[in-house]
Amino acid sequence: MNYEPSDRWGILYCPRNGIKSKRKRWARLQKELDQRGVKYDFVQSESMESVDRLVRMLIHNGYKTIVIVGGDSALNDAVNCLMQEERQVRDEVALGVIPNGAINDFARFWGFEANDDEQTVEWLAQRRIRKVDVGCLRYTNKKGEQCHRYFLNCVNIGLIADIMNLRRQTRHVLWSRTLSFVSSLLLMLFHRHDYKMRIRVNSDTIDRSVMNVCIGSALGYGQTPSAVPYNGMLDVSVIYSPKLIQLFAGLWLLLTGRILNHSSVHPYRTRELVVDEAHKAFVGVDGRLIDTPVGPYRIQIGQEELNFLIPA
Question: 19-35 and 117-125 are packed helices; what angle lies between their axes, rounded to 10 degrees?
Fold first, then answer.
């Protein structure tokens, strides 16, 4: 029996480790897919740029189910590619994820676990679709160009993005995700922990030193635990610079999902946030660092923009 692309999954595999690990991971997934009779075609990315090209290829070749085997950053690349298509094209495509990244926060929101391929494939095979919101960061880059970047999970301004930058720099030297993450945290002890910001959210204007701002459509790495990606709203956690003992208390509340109880965290819910100033603060979108915006920038939410495969 012949299967058209519209009847098959287009699977984009975004590996994260060495060659041996790539083969083992794909072998496990292939076993689960074959056992459930899933018809699929498989492509593998080698870089961020190749994700965009390969997702576009799958769309234009008629695949209606596109599954990303990767983390938040790879999923973000796929979303940004899909959002460049006309609404009519997007409405015909369902995007799914099999968590395989350093950070899988959006997958975790839905209950997909990186170590449970059997359950994940079973859920995806049932093709239950939900429309999800897509956030958008609009900014001007250093060349004076008007840019935008879409996101499913969150935008971080300040400390979290700064850690991403340090982690990227240390990886060039250490070539290890774990070592680079630990060394980044150690370096942060000697790094600045606050940034002069001016932010407009709803009727409030925040004009003071801030440690981090998380704008989340989903979990936001624990900083926006009440956010859901289908209500057309963004949850915002503005974290002022706490004292050292408060910082450790905040880390504990973050790990236990109660960060909003911390006295230094000020929550908001909005459809739009404007950053008039964020002096020398890095910006991260779904775990990926972007070029630092020049001048004011705006973060908005679009309701029910994409089809996403969720658990049955």
Answer: 50
The model's pTM: 0.87
- Which residues are CB-contacts of 38 (< 8 A; sequence separation ≥ 6)? 9, 121, 125
Q: Give Cβ neighbours of residue 114 (< 8 Å, ≥ 6 apart).
A: 99, 100, 104, 107
Alpha-carbon span 120 to 106, nearest angstrom: 14
Other C-beta atoms lying within 10 Å of the C-beta of residue 296: 15
Secondary structure, 3-state, the chain? CCCCHHHCEEEEECCCCCHHHHHHHHHHHHHHHHHCCCCEEEEECCCHHHHHHHHHHHHHCCCCEEEEEECHHHHHHHHHHHCCCCHHHHCCCEEEEEECCCCCHHHHHHCCCCCCHHHHHHHHHCCEEEEEEEEEEEEECCCCCEEEEEECCEEEEEHHHHHHHHHHHHHHHHCCHHHHHHHHHHHHCCCCCCEEEEEEECCEEEEEEECEEEEECCCCCCCCCCCCCCCCCEEEEEECCCCHHHHHHHHHHHHCCCHHHCCCEEEEEECEEEEEEECCCCEEECCEECCCCCCCEEEEEEEEEEEEEECC
CA nearest to 62, candidates 140, 99, 9, 1: 9
List the structure tokens of 254.
């973050």
CA-based nearest residue to 151, from 138, 166, 167:
138
The pair of structure tokens assigned to 127 is 């093709």
Profile the chain (312 residues) by mean pLDDT over runs of 10 residues. 68 73 82 93 84 94 96 95 95 96 91 93 95 98 95 93 65 44 50 83 95 94 94 95 55 60 86 95 92 94 97 90
